[in-house]
Structures are given as C-alpha cells and as structure tokens.
Amino acid sequence: MTTVLIADDQPMQRFGFRMLLESQDDMTVVGEASNGTEAVHMVARHHPDVVLMDIRMPGLDGIEATRRVIASGARTRILIVTTFDLDEYAYDGLRAGASGFLVKDALPEELLAGIRAVAAGDAVVAPTLTRRLLDAYVHHLPVVPGTRVTSDPRITALTEREREILTVIGQGWSNTEIAARLHLAESTVKTHVTRILAKTGARDRVQAVILAYDTRLVTPL
C-alpha cells in the first residue's frame, strides 16, 4: 500500500486528488496539508511514501517545504504538481530534491502512474522533458572559470563507464537507448545506473541529471 500526503492550498484540488487516490486498491491518503509548513509537520508525523506537493501555497511554499523534507532525511519522495509544465519554480523544486513533477491537468492515469513510479524510486519526468527543462534552467547557473568536472568527488568516485553513462543520462537517454548505443545489455545499464546513484548520493534519475549539469558533464545546447 502506497501512502500519500496531499499538499495544496485549494480545497477542491485536494478533494479531487483524494477521490482519485482512494479509488485505487494500492493507495491510501494519510492526510492533507494546505501549506508548506503543514506539509513538513505531517511528513514527520505520518511518514508518507509520496507527497503530492503544490508549488504556490501561502506562507511556506512547496519548494522550501520540499527542501526541508529532504534535509530532514525522510524517506518520503516528493512529486511536484504545478500548473504549467515549464513553470520556472519546477526547476527549483527538482533541485530541492523532488523526484519529478506533473502538471495539474495531467490525465488521472498519468498521475497514478507517476505516484507509483516515485514510490518505487523512479523519476517521473520523461528523459526528453527533463532535458528540455534543464536546458532552460541551466542557463541561469553561474559559470565558474576554470571549473573542472574531475574536481568534484562525486564524479571522481565513478568508473570511466559509469561516468560515460551518467553523461548520457544527463543528455536525456533512456536505459533502452543507452543499451542500444553503447552495446550493453539493458540489465547491465540498470546495474550501472544503480551504482551511479549510490556513489553520487543522487536520490533518483532526475537528481542524477541535475548532477550531470552541475558538474558540467553536460552543457546546454
């Protein structure tokens, strides 16, 4: 059973989410929060598997709430729910530690699939959309003259093959594409990805993509 906390300042939105989730045999709603402060407190109290986190809420917004939940060491995963798929705040949500995001007008089956994916430790954002989002965001990252990728300990811990795979993950390749282009079995790719996440401390694939950008393994087109 996947436990879910709904954080949204709109009562009707929370009601709609609850009705959908409680129609599923494998999901249950453990609570509702109307702002970020309530969400943080309720995560500490209920330890939900997933939080559906709105961005714009009164007081503490969803981005800072996400940051505080992740900083607390909770195993809870955050799924950002935003109005627009290119909302600039979604970038900050991903960097704060969210496992992905969906738009509020997503189809019910897309939302349910997203929750299940996040609960299983996967990322929700499709590789191509991840690339589009980060390409837009990375232009705002500071450029540090002389910055070398090899100076980051998270990268130096990787083998040459793992570094290669992290690079193409950052370029938006799926496991199937990596396997085909690098002539590897898909099971081997999955093993490499698991090791990359473990060595770098990335929570999921989305965070691995952000790492690839931050360390300049990947640069925007």
TrEMBL record:
Q: Which InterPro entries match?
A: CheY-like_superfamily, NreC/VraR/RcsB-like_REC, Sig_transdc_resp-reg_C-effctor, Sig_transdc_resp-reg_receiver, Tscrpt_reg_LuxR_C, WalR-like
Record keyword Cell cycle present: no
Which top-level group of life is the source organism from?
Bacteria
Occurrences of domain Response regulatory (ranges): 3-119
Task: Please provide, alphabetically and separated by semicolons, the GO molecular function terms listed in this UniProt record.
Answer: DNA binding
Q: Which residues carry this modification: 4-aspartylphosphate?
A: D54
Keywords, comma-separated and alphabetical: DNA-binding, Phosphoprotein, Transcription, Transcription regulation
Ranges for the HTH luxR-type domain?
151-216
Any Pfam family hit: Response_reg
Q: What is this protein called?
A: DNA-binding response regulator
- Report the source organism: Streptomyces badius
